[in-house]
Q: What sequence folds into this?
């Protein structure tokens, strides 16, 4: 067995079966990336600039927007760089960083969706105790907890992947460094590690999803107890955006990591949608389906227009 440092860089082959489409993909993915960054930045500005939105729900939405700006930034800049005709090479440390930050931000978002579901559960099921239960201190602890446990999960998965020796070939049949494609390049038996990784990657989202399901089961039950039709409509409206974002986030994880026979082209397509489109859609979902965010966003845009005129 050779030393793991035998390979000093990897070559990213990109999305399978997309030869001669580099220019079109560059324009498409750059558009998605810019819209994602701008959309989430506007949500951040809208929430920060409006004191009416300084509540736990919007505090967690702020953190989600930050994650949604950084998440596509893990793989998109390098992908856009080589789609523009530049080198496809990525250093060993760059590959390690990509894998770590991808799973750190992905896991953080997963835990964050769970916390946001708990926040809605407390708001709807225990409205009179909401401000006491979801105090500033509790919100800060929950927000830091999502990042802490996301970091622990990412360290575990990154260590699991890069403790293996990589002595060639160095061509990554994908557009960024992720666990399934990296394990194929290892110069050792990876069957046991693949199983551990599969359990780890599958167990964490499944646990979060079950907690979210429990929270929303209680929420639906409480909403059905509301006698006012208007009250029911408002409660469902508040939760619908969150549920849509959850489905968009969890479905790709199931398709990519838990399928019995991986399909490289399907995986790449789903992962591009997950990396670029889902963060962009999150911004649209939370801004277009929320009157308070829309109002605050309109004020921010009007102020920006006035500054530009001056």
A:
């Amino acid at each position: 067995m050779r030393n793991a440092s035998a390979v000093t860089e990897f070559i990213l082959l990109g999305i399978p079966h997309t030869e001669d489409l580099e220019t079109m993909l560059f324009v498409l993915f750059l558009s998605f990336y810019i819209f994602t960054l701008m959309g989430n930045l506007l949500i951040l500005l809208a929430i920060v600039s409006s004191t009416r939105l300084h509540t736990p729900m919007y505090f967690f939405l702020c953190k989600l927007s930050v994650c949604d700006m950084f998440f596509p930034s893990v793989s998109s800049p390098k992908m856009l760089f080589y789609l523009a005709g530049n080198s496809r090479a990525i250093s060993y440390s760059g590959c390690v960083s990509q894998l770590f930050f991808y799973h750190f931000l992905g896991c953080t978002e997963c835990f964050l969706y769970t916390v946001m579901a708990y926040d809605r559960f407390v708001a709807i099921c225990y409205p009179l105790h909401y401000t006491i239960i979801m105090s500033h201190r509790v919100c800060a602890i929950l927000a830091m907890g999502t990042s802490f446990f996301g970091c622990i999960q990412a360290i575990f998965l990154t260590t699991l992947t890069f403790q293996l020796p990589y002595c060639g070939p160095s061509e990554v049949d994908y557009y960024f460094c992720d666990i399934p494609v990296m394990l194929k390049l290892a110069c050792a038996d990876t069957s046991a590690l693949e199983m551990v990784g599969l359990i780890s990657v599958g167990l964490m989202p499944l646990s979060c999803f079950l907690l979210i399901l429990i929270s929303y089961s209680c929420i639906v039950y409480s909403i059905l107890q509301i006698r006012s039709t208007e009250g029911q409509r408002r409660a469902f409206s508040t939760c619908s955006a969150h549920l849509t974002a959850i489905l968009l986030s969890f479905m790709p994880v199931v398709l990519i990591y838990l399928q019995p026979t991986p399909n490289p082209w399907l995986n790449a397509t789903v992962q591009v949608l997950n990396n670029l489109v889902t963060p962009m859609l999150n911004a649209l979902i939370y801004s277009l389906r929320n009157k308070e965010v829309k109002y605050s966003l309109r004020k921010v845009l009007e102020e920006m227009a006035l500054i530009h005129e001056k």
Summary: The mean pLDDT is 84. The first helix runs from residue 22 to 49.
